C-alpha cells in the first residue's frame, strides 16, 4: 500500500516555549486503520490538529495525498475529515441542515442522496429533522462523524471518538469504522480504550512527550513484545520451587497452589514440554493447565516504561 500521509521532521513550538511535537517522521498507508496511542499530554491532539490545518507546524513538511498542507491547503483539507474530542455542534440546527451545510463549506455541490446514505449508515435518518440540542451525547457524536464524512474525505481522523459513549454505541461506531475502511477511507484514531485499537487497528504508533518512538504492525508488535503465561494448577501445594526447576523462573501463586511460567511467544514450544516432563520426574502432580497472552494494553504500558 502506498502512503497517503507523510510527515518529515515536523515540530511544533509554541510562543510560550512549550515544544508539543519534536522532529516527527511518520507515514500512514492508504486504506489502513492506524491507531495513535499515548498518555495524556503526549501530543496526539496537537499532531492531528496540525495535519488538519488547525495548527501550523514550526518546522518540517506534511504531505496529504501527495500535496503539501501549506502550499496546497484547500486541496489537502478537502481530503480530510475530522471528528474532534469536543462535542462542538450547532445546537439549534437540524441534523440534516448541519451535515448539508458542512458539505457546502468544502465547496462540494449539494448531494441529498449521499447525505441520506451517511445519515442512514449512522442510524441518524429518523432524527434528520430534529434539532441537535434534543439529541443524546452519543447521537451528537454520530452527527460529528456525519459532518466529517459530508464532503467524502479520503482520510478520517477520530480523536477519542468513544469518550462519553456507552458500550453499545461504541460497538456500533467500530462497525461504522470498519465499513468506512471497506469503502477505501483511511482511518486514524486516538483512543484511551486500548482494547479497541487491539481489535480493529492494522498498525499502531506510540507517541510520548511529542515524539513518535514506535510504529509497527499490530500483530507483529504483539508477537514481538508480547509474552505468554502457562498456569499449572497443582494437586498439592508446594512449599517452594525445587532448585532443579530454577532455569524456568517459575512463580508460586495463590497460596502455593499454582505455578506460573512466563515465556516469550518466540520461545520454542518444546520448552513447555520439557517443563512438564521435569515436573513429572519430580512427582509434582497437577490438575489443570491454562495459558494467557499479554494484551496490547500491557505491551503499551511496557513500551512507555522503556521509553522513560
TrEMBL record:
Quote the SUPFAM superfamilies the UniProt record gives.
P-loop containing nucleoside triphosphate hydrolases (SSF52540)
Name listed for the protein in its UniProt record: ABC transporter, ATP-binding protein
Keyword Transport: yes or no?
yes
One Pfam family it belongs to: ABC_tran
Q: Name one GO molecular function term.
A: ATP hydrolysis activity
Organism of origin is: Leptospira vanthielii serovar Holland str. Waz Holland = ATCC 700522
User: Do you know which InterPro entries this protein is assigned to?
Assistant: AAA+_ATPase, ABC_transporter-like_ATP-bd, ABC_transporter-like_CS, ABC_transporter_ATP-binding, P-loop_NTPase
Tell me where the transmembrane regions lie. none
Key words, A-Z: ATP-binding, Nucleotide-binding, Transport
The residue ranges of the ABC transporter domain are: 5-234
Amino acid at each position: 500500500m502506498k502512503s497517503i500521509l507523510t510527515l518529515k521532521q515536523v515540530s511544533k513550538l509554541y510562543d510560550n516555549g512549550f515544544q508539543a511535537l519534536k522532529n516527527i517522521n511518520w507515514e500512514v498507508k492508504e486504506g489502513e486503520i492506524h491507531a495513535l496511542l499515548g498518555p495524556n499530554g503526549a501530543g496526539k491532539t496537537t499532531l492531528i490538529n496540525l495535519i488538519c490545518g488547525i495548527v501550523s507546524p514550526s518546522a518540517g513538511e506534511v504531505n496529504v495525498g501527495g500535496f503539501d498542507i501549506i502550499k496546497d491547503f484547500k486541496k489537502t483539507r478537502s481530503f480530510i475529515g475530522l471528528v474532534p474530542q469536543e462535542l462542538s455542534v450547532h445546537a439549534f440546527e437540524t441534523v440534516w441542515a448541519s451535515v448539508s451545510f458542512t458539505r457546502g463549506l468544502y465547496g462540494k455541490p449539494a448531494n441529498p442522496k449521499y447525505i441520506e446514505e451517511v445519515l442512514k449508515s449512522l442510524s441518524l435518518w429518523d432524527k434528520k429533522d430534529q434539532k441537535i440540542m434534543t439529541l443524546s451525547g452519543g447521537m451528537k457524536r454520530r452527527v460529528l462523524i456525519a459532518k466529517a464524512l459530508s464532503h467524502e474525505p479520503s482520510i478520517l481522523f477520530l480523536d477519542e471518538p468513544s469518550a462519553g459513549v456507552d458500550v453499545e454505541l461504541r460497538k456500533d461506531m467500530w462497525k461504522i469504522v470498519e465499513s468506512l475502511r471497506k469503502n477505501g477511507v483511511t482511518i486514524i484514531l486516538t483512543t484511551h480504550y486500548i482494547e479497541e485499537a487491539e481489535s480493529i487497528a492494522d498498525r499502531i504508533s506510540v507517541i510520548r512527550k511529542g515524539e513518535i518512538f514506535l510504529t509497527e504492525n499490530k500483530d507483529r508488535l504483539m508477537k514481538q513484545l508480547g509474552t505468554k503465561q502457562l498456569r499449572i494448577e497443582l494437586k498439592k501445594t508446594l512449599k517452594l520451587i525445587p532448585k532443579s526447576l530454577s532455569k524456568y523462573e517459575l512463580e508460586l501463586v495463590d497460596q502455593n497452589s499454582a505455578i506460573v511460567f512466563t515465556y516469550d511467544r518466540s520461545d520454542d514450544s518444546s520448552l513447555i514440554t520439557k517443563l512438564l516432563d521435569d515436573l513429572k520426574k519430580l512427582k509434582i502432580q497437577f490438575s489443570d493447565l491454562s495459558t494467557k497472552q499479554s494484551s496490547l494494553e500491557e505491551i503499551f504500558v511496557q513500551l512507555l516504561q522503556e521509553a522513560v
